[in-house]
């Protein structure tokens, strides 16, 4: 909403990769490696499609799609609908490609992967570790892809370095909140916040 999507996307990719690498150091032993491997392979297929969208579409259209994704995903998580469960990784390609497209275009590859992990009924620690392992590897690929298509600008690196102190502080605060607030309640706070951001972005795009 402030700096524009072609600056925000590579910036968020760099920050996300930094956060994932720090968290992965602590939890890598709990990773569900087979699922993570398949999701990464299919995400790599989807990333170029997302990059073409980022380079080709007008920014208002990109913002509108992103706003709808944020609102829709937050509503899904808050409603907690009872869905079917996946007993294997046969549908990993569907969620992986979708995540790759969203990751290349907006660096928001999380929703499809989070839904997939929920359907696979991973244990909470396994869920967290697998996501961080996935985000680290796909984040690295996405960051390099952004560099290859010319999205690494002086402004991107300036904002990245400028934001690092707050990133480190936020990780520490997140650990404190994780221990103090019931996880379901904390998740709801996050999704309400995301929904508000999505609505503001939607309003900003349409006005």
From TrEMBL:
KW Transmembrane helix (keyword) present: yes
UniProt source species: Thioploca ingrica
Topology in the lipid bilayer: Multi-pass membrane protein
Record keywords: Cell membrane, Membrane, Transmembrane, Transmembrane helix, Transport
Main location: membrane
Superkingdom field: Bacteria
A Pfam family that the UniProt record links to this protein: TauE
Transmembrane segments: 6-25, 37-54, 60-79, 91-109, 129-149, 156-177, 189-206
Assigned protein family: Belongs to the 4-toluene sulfonate uptake permease (TSUP) (TC 2.A.102) family.
Name of this protein: Probable membrane transporter protein
Cellular component, GO annotation: plasma membrane
Cellular compartments annotated: Cell membrane
InterPro entries to which the protein is assigned, alphabetical: TM_pro_TauE-like (IPR002781), TSUP (IPR052017)
Keyword Transmembrane: yes
